[in-house]
Every structure is written in structure tokens, then in C-alpha cells.
Amino acid sequence: MELVAPLGPNSPIHGRLKMGAGVYHVCYQVPNMQSAITHLREQGSLLLSEPQPAVAFGMRDIAWLLMETDMLVELLQESFHANHHE
Hints:
The chain is of the alpha+beta class. The protein has helices at 12-18, 33-42; strands at 25-30, 46-54, 60-66, 72-77.
């Protein structure tokens, strides 16, 4: 579980909290990033961010999708070597 706080009144998180939102997003660690993206897109999700290395996760790839329910989904590559950008 990750707890986040808004950095100021213009933060997207601040706006979500004012609306009474609880869960901001969910993160799934996946063994195959492209398969997970394909599956979620087939379910109607919109790809917001192509996979890219994330400093916070030891340069493992992350990608962001938006579900039809407006829930943000973060995908995290399970192992560093599987999708590493050279």
C-alpha cells in the first residue's frame, strides 16, 4: 500500500481528495508488460503512458492505463531483465 499526499492545491491528488475519492490507483506487478497492456486494452482501458523505466522501482518498466471506471492502473514489470531498455 502506498499513501500519497497532495503537493499543493493544484495537485491532481488534491482534486481527487476534494471529490471524496478514496483509492487513487492500483498497481499490478506483471510478468509480461505487453501482455498485460493488451489484456487491459481489450477490456476497454486507455493506455496513458507507454512502458518506461521508473527510478522509484529500480528502473523496471511501468505503464499507466485508465479504466472505463476512471480508475488508474499502474503496471510494474515483475523483473528488471524482462523489458529493460538498453
